[in-house]
């Protein structure tokens, strides 16, 4: 069950004035929205966010080309969270705040994940609130960047990926499949994977194939053609060439 409502929206050019019985966080990834609370007006952009406490009257009007993350935080739900009191402090008053580059990058990444996997809105919402709490309360902008890296490492569970790869080495393996296992978009997965491991996902798959092949070459009596098939190579020739490039020795000599 969703604790939060999180949406990536285009706020239209129609002027809206209302109040609601939940807190609201507004972060833009692009475009501009004019927003005023209790007589104070500012522009919500990629560099400027907004926190709206429940029951506070506000008005807004988008430019029609913005892309904006809107997070609704039911007040009663905060008591269910481990750090609910810290999050409640974020909404102790209406405020606009500067968005540091690390938070902007995290917002972009999480907005992309939300579009790919809307079922993860609870997890994404909590990450956004944790990041904002670190930035506004702890006055440590670097903590936001650390949280983003921690999020990446948690989602890219290499042990889980390795176990899946080992069961599918004989099959065609696509980046889209690996990204889906981590609930990330293919583009974001590729970037995060390279940052974490230093290699591209497909280079990592190739390395996994060859390391498994070496175990079979050295410790089994299977033919090299059979080994090539088991680890996903189309023929023995392409397998032998890849093996020699990686290990600087042919599979027959290694055997």
TrEMBL record:
GO molecular function, a single term: DNA-binding transcription factor activity
Q: Which domain of life is it from?
A: Bacteria
Q: Ranges for the HTH araC/xylS-type domain?
A: 159-255
Q: Name one Pfam family in it.
A: HTH_18
Under the heading InterPro entries, the entry gives: AraC-bd, AraC_XylS_family_regulators, Homeodomain-like_sf, HTH-like, HTH_AraC
Sorted alphabetically, which SUPFAM superfamilies does this protein's record hold?
Homeodomain-like, Regulatory protein AraC
* Keywords recorded for this protein, A-Z: DNA-binding, Transcription, Transcription regulation
Designated name of the protein: AraC-like ligand binding domain-containing protein
